[in-house]
Each structure stands twice: as structure tokens, then as C-alpha cells.
Amino acid sequence: MLGYVAIGIPCGILSASIGMNALQVFMMCALFYSGAGQFMIPNMWLAGAPIASIILSVSFVNTRQMLYSAAFAPWFESASKKLAFWFSATVTDESFGVNMQQFEQGGWTPHRATFVNLFSQTSWTVSCVVGVFVGNAIGIPLAIAAFAMTSIFICLLVTQELTAANIVAAVCAMIGVFACKLVGLSGPAIFIGAIVGVACAILFSRVRERA
Hints:
By secondary structure, the protein is mainly alpha-helical.
């Protein structure tokens, strides 16, 4: 939740720079919960990108959310459809890492996981709205804000168990994202990189088992 404050306020500043008011930012956070997507929208708008291009690019970036929700399916088999819906609608990169670690350790429940998601979304929403009101006075450089989001991903990465399969997944995912950006596929780069990383890790594990 504290991590969202560091990136939520700059997101609010950026949203205000394209003319969005506090109510619009609040509604965007409540109905479209995606840090990466919400950073992309004002950036692409300022760059003069057409609306169709913005929608397509953000949709590509957010396809990774389907992978996050699917990964939790084994722990939600006995949960109600309503709870499963709210969880899958509010899972993000950061809450995915926290909840996955807790589920693997045991003793974690779908209700607790959903509360993690909702508290995270609340923190993000409040921070973005605050960014609209007082962000310009704080004067946080957007370049630093961009790295703040990257730093959260780094924290999630280093807290993973150091296994050969995880290392393969991380390295291959980074190579996949880099390769996509080199050929101009910035929109789906994260999604493709994640698929490449997971596929390589699965292949590596199977080869290792047979050996």
C-alpha cells in the first residue's frame, strides 16, 4: 500500500496534466484498476495518439491480468463466484506477488487475498486523487516516478525463491520484453515476455526431470 503512494501521486499529476479532474481520476482508478495502463493513457494522449491506439495498447498491456487470475484458480475452487469475481477484477502486479507468496506458504484464504487487493486499490485511488490536488506542489519528477514502478517489480522479483526454474523464467522474460521493444512491439511486450518466461521455465523443468 505504501508503494502505491510513491507511484500514485505522480500518476495523479500526469492525469491532471491532460485536463482530468479529481472526480475523473477517482472514477478511472475505481473502474479501471491498472497502474501501468493509467500511466500509459495520459502519456499517449500527450503524444497525440488516437483513442483507438490508446485503447488497443492499454488492452495489450493488461492482458497479463488474465494470467494472474488464472494462476490463483487452484485456491479459489471452493470460493463463491462473487468472491472470485471481485478478486480477479482487483488483482494487480503487486498484490499478485504478495498473495502468491502467502498462498504458497499456507494458511492464506481467498477472503484475505481479496482484502489485500481491495486495500491496495484504495491506496492507489487515494494517492492518485491526492496527486491531482497537491502533486504539482510536491514537484516529484516523473522520471523518478517511472523508476518507482520499476522498483516495485524488482522487489517482487528478489522475494521469489531462488530456484533454477525461477531464474530461467526471469531471464527469459526480460529477454522477451527487450526483443519485443527492439522490433517495435512495446504494447504487448510485457504480456509476450511473461509468456516466454513461463514457457521457458516449464520446458527447463521438464528437461531437467527427464535428465
